[in-house]
TrEMBL record:
Region (Disordered): 331-380
Gene Ontology BP, a term: fungal-type cell wall polysaccharide metabolic process
Keywords noted in UniProt: DNA-binding, Sigma factor, Transcription, Transcription regulation
Recorded GO MF terms: DNA binding; sigma factor activity
InterPro entries cross-referenced by the UniProt entry: ASL1, Asl1_glyco_hydro_catalytic, GH, RNA_pol_sigma-70_dom, RNA_pol_sigma70_ECF_CS, RNA_pol_sigma70_r2, RNA_pol_sigma_r2
Name the UniProt record assigns to this protein: RNA polymerase sigma factor
Family recorded in the similarity comment: Belongs to the sigma-70 factor family. ECF subfamily.
Boundaries of every RNA polymerase sigma-70 region domain copy: 31-96
Domain Asl1-like glycosyl hydrolase catalytic: 398-619
Skewed-composition ranges (Low complexity): 331-357
Length: 623
């Protein structure tokens, strides 16, 4: 199929790579000019036109040229380049997530640099190709990264092996993730169609009253759910041409004019203050010419208002010839080392709990408004909440500063969350391991899936280790990252339920990406913090995987439940969350639970969407 409107990729041959590695200035020029469109397309589509696109492209080219002399297998240059590109995109995502709110608010899209609009204009896209390009705005962050690679595979620019190398996962896992991404892309295409329908469905207009007009996962799910249930909007799913057919032969997105002036050596205008670039390259990597090329790129950015960038003589460790970029083992956390605790590493929780509900009872809402002055809200990417239906749940999730939440179910239908707060689905027990439920979880989640709920308790999911292991491959087939079944207690015990499950998973070659824990303490003294953190440390020491604490709190379940005072809860929350934030291996944590109504009034966090308890105020400040 002939390419239309785009950049005809003429990537340098092996001889050029070898010559550039040896220090040939002309070969370095050809290498930069030949591969810059590929890097720009991957970064632009993954970051969706964010103002960081130019910065990340520059970072990639600097790293490539800096380490070119150490490339051992020139024939692997493109795989190596793509892997570096993916790594830099992920680094930018992580830096965004860990930045303070005030920085994130200022770090808005450049309204003139929307990558989708640029692609539509420069590639002259129309019809379903245009719809597909617009649908990319609605994908989850991680799926946009994968889409940026798969799109190039579908258009003939990359191979599947190069995608596998760049993402750092096995070929089968990559295939499952791509399939899941394509399903999300198809859903997003239906959303785009429904929104563009003229005249638009009146029921859809009513649904969109509170929408701020920005594409995102939460509204993608809501609009998609409407299109499936609405007789008027259901046509949005009809006659969708397979994305592979639409993308076949599609060109790379042409570079912005500033990049062309860079490559020609003639900038469009002289910047007021030229940026200084000092690139330290291996002696035989063509350092002088690479410096000149990158200086031009940065000068073009300065013309557009970018700040001067100084790349000092900082040597990066030479990468392997084929770089496998692994998934981070935990979400970003404080760089501080994990503190030692006074409790022995194998300390078990102080009580064997028997409580977490399948679906906790509906509460009686309280309408009493909060009169407390505004307080600082922690915004840790680790902090979450266990939630069930109560009046004000969405507002409470936002107020408490949760980055994620779950409701023991495969979807957020019962407890929809606010924009920006990720929902994590759960497969609660054996009865939920069905094709329909797993598909629903894959469509709803943030790429993580929680395993069975307290299978070691008869009143909870009540599963044998063998039954859980037999069902696990079906969870793996979703392509999601899997969190282990959450045992009620004894997670650090040799021969316990979790230990036997992890041993069996290893023997069967099953994948478990993180460990889920529950912990409840009946000792309400200051010692509870060290008891809790000691248990977390001991479980991590046994399995060496990221830890998700999906339920924790202070409740004495012996006889009639006994609860701590407000002061005791506040002290425990402050100490426990501080310790969790310092432990890099702790990926996420969630207090049990968010509602403080009805029978959860003694341990919950919020009486309604605006009224936190004393414990709620402490948890809000955490992180």
């Amino acid at each position: 199929m002939p390419r239309k409107g785009g950049f005809m990729a003429r990537q340098p041959d092996l001889a050029t790579v070898i010559a550039a590695r040896a220090g040939d200035p002309a070969a370095v020029d050809r290498l930069v000019a030949g591969y810059l469109p590929l890097v720009y397309t991957i970064v632009g589509r993954a970051l969706e036109g964010h103002a960081d696109v130019d910065d990340v492209v520059q970072e990639v080219m600097i790293r490539v040229l800096r380490n070119l002399g150490e490339l051992r297998e020139p024939e692997s240059f493109r795989s190596w380049l793509v892997a570096i590109t993916v790594r830099q995109v992920r680094e930018r995502f992580r830096s965004r997530h860990s930045a303070p709110d005030e920085l994130l608010d200022a770090d808005l899209r450049d309204p003139g640099a929307d990558f989708t609009d640029l692609a539509i204009t420069r590639l002259e896209l129309s019809g379903q190709r245009r719809e597909t390009a617009e649908a990319t705005r609605w994908l989850d962050e991680e799926n946009r990264e994968l889409l940026s690679l798969w799109w190039l595979e579908a258009s003939g620019e990359l191979t599947r092996d190069e995608i596998v190398d760049a993402t750092g996962v096995g070929r089968q896992h990559a295939a499952v993730r791509i399939q899941r991404m394509k399903l999300q892309l198809e859903t997003a295409r239906a959303v785009v169609r429904a929104l563009h329908r003229a005249p638009r469905c009146a029921d859809l207009d009513a649904l969109l009253i509170s929408w701020d007009g920005r594409p995102g996962p939460l509204w993608r799910k809501r609009i998609a759910r409407h299109t499936r249930e609405c007789g008027v909007c259901a046509s949005a799913w009809h006659d969708l041409i397979a994305a592979e057919r639409l993308l076949a032969g599609m060109a790379l997105v042409p570079l912005p004019p500033a990049y062309f002036t860079t490559l020609s050596g003639t900038p469009a205008a002289a910047p007021t203050a030229s940026p200084t670039v000092t690139v330290s390259l291996p002696a035989k990597a063509g350092g002088s010419l690479a410096q000149k090329a990158l200086a031009g790129m940065l000068a073009a950015t300065a013309v557009a208002g970018g700040a001067a960038l100084v790349v000092a003589d900082r040597e990066s460790p030479p990468p392997a010839a084929r770089v496998a970029v692994a998934e981070p083992v935990a979400l970003p956390a404080s760089p501080s080392p994990a503190p030692s605790v006074s409790a022995p590493p194998s300390l078990a929780p102080s009580v064997a709990p028997s409580r977490s509900p399948s679906r906790p009872p509906s509460p009686q809402p309280s309408r009493k408004p909060s009169t407390a002055p505004p307080v600082t809200t922690g915004t840790s990417v680790k902090k979450g909440a266990a939630v069930w239906t109560f009046t004000g749940s969405k507002a409470a999730l936002k107020d408490v500063g949760a980055s994620w939440y779950y409701d023991w179910g495969p979807s957020d239908d019962d407890v929809p969350g606010p924009a920006g707060v990720a929902f994590v689905p759960m497969i609660w027990g054996a009865a939920n391991v069905t094709t329909a439920t797993l598909k629903q979880a894959a469509a709803e989640g943030d790429d993580w899936l929680l395993g069975f709920n307290e299978p070691d308790l008869a009143e909870q999911s009540n599963m044998t280790v063998e039954a859980a292991l037999d069902a696990w491959p079906k969870l793996e087939a979703t392509g999601m990252k899997l969190v282990s079944p959450a045992v009620a207690f004894g997670g650090d015990t040799a021969g316990g339920w979790l230990d036997r499950f992890m041993t069996g998973a290893s023997e069967r070659g099953l994948r478990v990406d993180a460990i889920a824990l529950h912990w409840y303490g009946s000792d309400f003294s200051k010692a509870a913090v060290n008891q809790f953190l000691g248990y977390v440390d001991a479980v991590h020491q046994r399995y060496g995987k990221p830890i998700w604490i999906t339920e924790f709190g202070l409740i004495d379940f012996g006889g009639s439940p006994r609860y701590p005072s407000d002061a005791q809860k506040v002290a425990f929350i402050k100490g426990a969350t501080a310790g969790l934030e310092k432990r890099r291996f702790v990926a996420r944590y969630a207090w049990f639970g968010l509602p403080a109504v009805g029978d959860s009034a003694d341990f919950g966090l919020y009486k309604d969407g605006k009224t936190p308890t004393e414990a709620g105020k402490a948890y809000r400040a955490a992180g």
